Amino acid sequence: DTCTGFLLGGIGELNKSRRPNFMVVEKDTSINEIEECFKGFLTRSDIAIILINQNIAELIRHVIDQHTIPIPSVLEIPSKD
Fold this sequence. Notes:
Blueprint: H1 2-8, H2 31-43, E1 49-53, H3 54-59, H4 61-66, E2 73-77
Parallel strand pairs: 1-2
């Protein structure tokens, strides 16, 4: 639902390499997929803020806690779950 709202607001896009600036996490999405996508977002120069739902952030807490540089900033937002 969070992604849908931002996509409807025009936030989502594909970069020159055709990589999206968002990830939709579903029930069957593995933790490894989430971690790899998050790490990929950390290395992209076109991303300055990463919004992540708290319940998803808890799944990859160890990766988020290792991120110490200010950009991209990681903002955990509440979810309806």
